[in-house]
Request: fold
Amino acid sequence: MANPTHRHTRTRRDKRRANWKGQMPTLTACPECKELKEPHRVCLSCGSYSGRKVLEIVEKE
Ligand SMILES: [Zn+2]
Reply:
């Protein structure tokens, strides 16, 4: 296994981690209900995917 030759400095480590967090998922409008959803995922508000209803949405009481 290849190993790193030198340990990186704290500065270098922290610089790497500085632009790592806080990425919002891409959201698109659902073609059925126009609610925002992630692409290639079943819409969680109307339960449809690619024009078909694939999930039964049950309201919590
Ligand atoms: Zn929808």
Observations:
- The chain is about 15% helix and 15% strand.
- The CA atoms of residues 2 and 8 lie 16 Å apart.
- Residues 24-55 form one domain.
